[in-house]
């Protein structure tokens, strides 16, 4: 065999190896079924974001993804009654009008019985008066949230611990969009295992001053919200793992804009979070191009 052919074969195998490493996972006999809910959101890129996240999940080989879209804001919501029981995971890209009571009850039953939930960015603004939903997401913002909603939750550098702060004040704010460092707080959780302790996230809103029940919540990562960017001056929860009944929830506050959702850090944690809520474990390899503390990466 000539040297040229050998070189081509080596290059081909190298490329295949890189692809397999980036997306390698233990593929289940049957893919896990995911339902993305959208239809109302205060973010203009909702529909595009839904399709991006659908693609991110499907490319792992672990998931098949359907999308259900609610009526538009202000329209009759009584027809919105998806069958959650057909799915392993529900991903919420929704922030809008209340769902019908029957739909709320069906969703609560789904999660209590072991269904997985992924909550993305403004989905934690939704349903301020739905008690069960707020327990699922741990903390949320806006829509009238205040001290009656529950405490603020943040990491105190001096005390070296998470603080539940009950002082009065609004729930939910953010400063100017900017790149920021995401800092791992639980390196042993399946979602975070193998990720850098610190990594640079692409330009995004950094949610701060979120508050809520803050029960059964494991803060996986935080980000410092700098005062000079009109932030809180606190280490704010960015990635969270929660439980509600037998169900697991992954809550990410990242993903304000299309460019934010193209960050390899956002993509990877979304994929790993979805696998964890579906199975309780993560089999996906960390991609070679995952961001570092000094170098962000995106698609």
UniProtKB/TrEMBL annotation:
<dbReference type="InterPro" id="IPR029062">
    <property type="entry name" value="Class_I_gatase-like"/>
</dbReference>
<dbReference type="Pfam" id="PF06283">
    <property type="entry name" value="ThuA"/>
</dbReference>
<protein>
    <recommendedName>
        <fullName>ThuA-like domain-containing protein</fullName>
    </recommendedName>
</protein>
<feature type="domain" description="ThuA-like">
    <location>
        <begin position="33"/>
        <end position="277"/>
    </location>
</feature>
<dbReference type="InterPro" id="IPR029010">
    <property type="entry name" value="ThuA-like"/>
</dbReference>
